[in-house]
Amino acid sequence: MAAAPAAPEPETLAAFEAAKGFMPVQEGLALYAAAAGAGAALGLPLLEVGTYCGRSTILLADAARATGTVAVTVDHHRGSEEQQPGWDYHDPEVVDPEVGRMDTLPAFRRALHNAGLEEHVIAVVGRSPQVAKVWGREVGLVFIDGGHTDEHATNDYEGWAPHVAEGGLLVIHDVFPDPVDEWTGQAPYRIYLRALESGAFTEVSATDSLRVLRRTGRGI
Ligand code: SAH
Ligand code: MG
């Protein structure tokens, strides 16, 4: 089995930094280390919920390449609530003028192409709960970075956490235990607590708002 590299390739890091998105560098490096570790240990797919323009996907793709597996990334590409026109995280560059709605798929495709990592990613365009329902195998890592309402976060947890293999990782972004730090709500924090309370997951590391948990028990 492939050894786990500690850090992404320099070209990957450059492509990551150039990509639009919401993943700070330090948290991205922690995500990469988790993904490379899981890929090397289990050789199973690395799955992301919340592609947006591919910023974090680039890191998962590099980890997949380095460890001989594949990254799968799921998004309907129409944006989360807080990314819609008029909201704080809206970017008018990712609106499809013909349709009049957000479409992050073209920017994602460009970013992945520029990173030279297209062949290491399977992009699934669809709603997370629907995709989770037809998904039929274990994965080495699930990275939850999708919608931030309780409904979305709960669906992502209930839909995807069951697919994490024994010894695999559940990574959750935007975990803010203190409501003062909150910028998109505390739903990710609540699913993080639920994962710990389930007894199925044990915390491995915390880097700013990124939490890495390992499956050490059954169920969710
Ligand atoms: N990982 C990205 C940021 C993701 S932003 C980065 O590193 O920059 C959150 C994304 O989740 C948005 O693109 C939004 O379209 C997607 N999303 C929100 N709810 C979703 C759902 N129910 N199904 C699929 N994708 C969803
Ligand atoms: Mg996020």
Automatic annotation (TrEMBL):
<protein>
    <submittedName>
        <fullName>Class I SAM-dependent methyltransferase</fullName>
    </submittedName>
</protein>
<dbReference type="GO" id="GO:0008168">
    <property type="term" value="F:methyltransferase activity"/>
</dbReference>
<keyword id="KW-0489">Methyltransferase</keyword>
<keyword id="KW-0808">Transferase</keyword>
<dbReference type="InterPro" id="IPR029063">
    <property type="entry name" value="SAM-dependent_MTases_sf"/>
</dbReference>
<dbReference type="Pfam" id="PF13578">
    <property type="entry name" value="Methyltransf_24"/>
</dbReference>
<dbReference type="GO" id="GO:0032259">
    <property type="term" value="P:methylation"/>
</dbReference>
